[in-house]
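Re: that backbone. Tokens:
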């Protein structure tokens, strides 16, 4: 076994980790294997396991051996997996992305031949940040009635996904990149994402560069989707918008994606494991077939990708549809027809002559991310206050807390992120979770904050959380209420 172009090679073949997954995963993966075997794709699959079936057999939905296989081989093809409910395990998909730092989720949405859609000739690419945002699922019960979820955005993560978007768009000779955000509300988190986007855009003067608020984007995608080209988004917005785009071109059952990092890549269908139709031979294998062709392009095996895509499109042109697309063909029949189509494709002359295909698909193997920003330190930050979050169950009166303590003054009390003291600006329904903000005019030490917290505890007030408040120069490093 040796290495060529960063990928593991065994006896002249690429070695790729294979996860069949659960439910219909076995059937649709079999379609890919049958096609690959027929055209003799130079790939050797190393089968590993993940998902509900894996959990039932081995006691974990994501064995260490599976992750080590992907790390060793660099590339994986993954069927849909089910995360066991009530088991305490997080999403298999999220765990794989985090462990391998697959920070970019690429979701092409392209009109397919003879697939019913309200739009024609769409060819969008959604590039979604894949690690941060709310998807780490860092959540806490603050009181019995209130849950908090952290939304995480970093300068480095924002840089990597935006740089990736520009580099991929450049390789694919795209013309326009649009940053999608909610910076009008999330001024710090989405603001960082948006500012990073425009900083990077200075190195790519040939692109049309713009941005749009996510709710406006959703409306515009329904009205005029053809005006968009490449979209780059934070994690949760990307998840939602990519499904919307799948609907624009026909069905989530046709949607596929690549999860790409600096070292590794995992290709998969977007849809779930659909246990209700498993083992009935009616599942649509299109999404995993397209995911496999994207994997082939990533490995620079473009000719094989072209053959499979053309044969797949010929199925649609000939009205060969599975049940989800209002057809009558089984999974195996759909696959067999695709293989028959391959026999009629010129396998020798096409790749050099098909300029459009080369332009849109060639050289996708790796996107280089350089000059990732160094970590900044906070040596110039001054501690000037604290937000103390408390449980308080009396809705008739405010908690008995000091208005001043040492050089700290009570700036406000809020409930559900709405001020209720010193000015009550709303008749908002109160919950038992209050934020008490204390600020000083100059730098304070943490001992003062500890003494203030002790004052709360002595009064019988339960503290659920604190957030230290800093400033750098004249800029507050926290949001105002």
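Recovered sequence:
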């Amino acid at each position: 076994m040796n290495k060529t172009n960063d990928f593991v090679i065994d006896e002249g073949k690429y070695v790729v980790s294979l996860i069949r997954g659960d439910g219909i995963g076995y059937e649709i993966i079999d379609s890919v294997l049958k096609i690959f075997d027929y055209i003799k794709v130079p790939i050797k699959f190393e089968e590993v396991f993940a998902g509900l079936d894996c959990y039932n057999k081995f006691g974990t939905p994501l064995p260490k051996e599976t992750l080590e296989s992907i790390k060793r081989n660099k590339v994986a093809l993954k069927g849909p997996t089910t995360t066991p409910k009530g088991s305490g395990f997080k999403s298999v998909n999220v765990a794989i992305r985090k462990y391998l730092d697959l920070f970019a989720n690429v979701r092409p949405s392209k009109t397919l031949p003879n697939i019913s859609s309200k739009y024609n000739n769409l060819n969008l690419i959604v590039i979604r940040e894949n690690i941060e945002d709310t998807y780490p699922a860092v959540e806490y019960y603050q009181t019995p009635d209130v849950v908090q979820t952290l939304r995480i955005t970093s300068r480095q993560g924002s840089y990597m996904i935006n740089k990736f978007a520009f580099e991929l768009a450049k390789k694919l000779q795209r013309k326009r990149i649009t940053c999608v955000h909610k910076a009008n509300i999330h001024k710090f988190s989405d603001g960082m994402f948006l500012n990073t986007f425009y900083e990077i855009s200075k190195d790519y003067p040939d692109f049309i560069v713009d941005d749009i608020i996510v709710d406006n984007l959703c409306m515009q995608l329904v009205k005029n989707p053809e005006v968009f080209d490449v979209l780059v988004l934070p994690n949760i917005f990307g998840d939602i918008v990519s499904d919307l785009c799948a609907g624009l071109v026909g069905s989530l059952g046709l949607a596929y994606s690549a999860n790409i990092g600096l070292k590794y890549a995992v290709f998969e269908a977007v849809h779930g494991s659909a246990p209700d139709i498993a083992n009935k031979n009616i599942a649509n294998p299109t999404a995993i077939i397209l995911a496999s062709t994207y994997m082939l392009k990533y490995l620079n095996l473009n000719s094989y990708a072209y053959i499979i895509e053309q044969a797949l499109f010929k199925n649609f042109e000939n009205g060969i549809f599975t049940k989800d697309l209002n057809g009558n063909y089984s999974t195996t029949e759909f696959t067999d027809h695709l293989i028959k189509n391959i026999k009629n494709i010129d396998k020798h002359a096409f790749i050099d002559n098909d300029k459009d295909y080369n332009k849109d698909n060639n050289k996708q193997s790796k996107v280089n991310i350089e000059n990732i920003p160094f970590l900044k330190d906070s040596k110039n930050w001054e501690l000037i206050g604290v937000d103390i979050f408390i449980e308080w169950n009396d809705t008739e009166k405010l908690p008995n807390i000091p208005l001043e303590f040492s050089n700290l003054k009570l700036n406000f009390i809020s409930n559900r992120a709405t001020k209720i003291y010193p000015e009550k600006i709303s008749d908002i329904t109160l919950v038992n979770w209050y934020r008490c903000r204390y600020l000083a005019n100059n730098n304070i030490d943490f001992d003062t904050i500890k003494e203030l917290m002790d004052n709360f505890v002595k009064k019988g007030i339960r503290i659920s959380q604190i957030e230290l408040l800093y400033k750098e120069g004249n800029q507050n490093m926290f949001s105002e209420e």
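The two ends are 60 Å apart (CA to CA). Residues 381-476 form a domain with the Alpha-Beta Plaits fold (CATH 3.30.70.1570).
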